[in-house]
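Might you be able to consider the sequence and fold that I enclose below?
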Amino acid sequence: MKFDIAITIDHEANSKVKDIVLIKELLKSYLKNKDYGSEVQEINIGFICVAMRMGYEKFHLKRTPRYVEHKLMKNKFTNESIELNKYFTYDIKLSGDQFNFFVACSDKEGQEFIAKEVLISLNNLNSLPKKVKDFDKDMLRKDLNLFLKEKGFIPSISSS
């Protein structure tokens, strides 16, 4: 499965790009050879991390989840053909308090925060169209949760 996180970030949070990219690359590599069914082949998450200043909110709207079975398009900047095939996309947008925490936290806290937000965002998979039958979203959630715990980004709850 193809996986990517597209980052929209402002100058206040520039120091956190490396934390987002770390999680993105780990998940991308982990999911590269995974198969959760034939009807979702690519997931792209938009990660919007910008301070909401008066008058700029309209430039950073959170997109609703969208599934594209098949679409051929052209990149308007490079004129390159792009084919979307069994593609699912949605956004994570940090709100005021989330943004402030993320900008001020340590690298470790930032990485844990991103991992948690990605896991929470998987609830967007519930908005896949009913026609998408051959996709095991529960297994994807379980695998990512376990993987991020193993990598130390999600605390394990010990049973004592």
Q: What stands out?
A: The beta strands are 2-9, 42-49, 66-74, 81-93. Helices lie at 17-31, 96-104, 107-121, 137-150. The longest strand covers residues 81-93. The two ends are 37 Å apart (CA to CA).
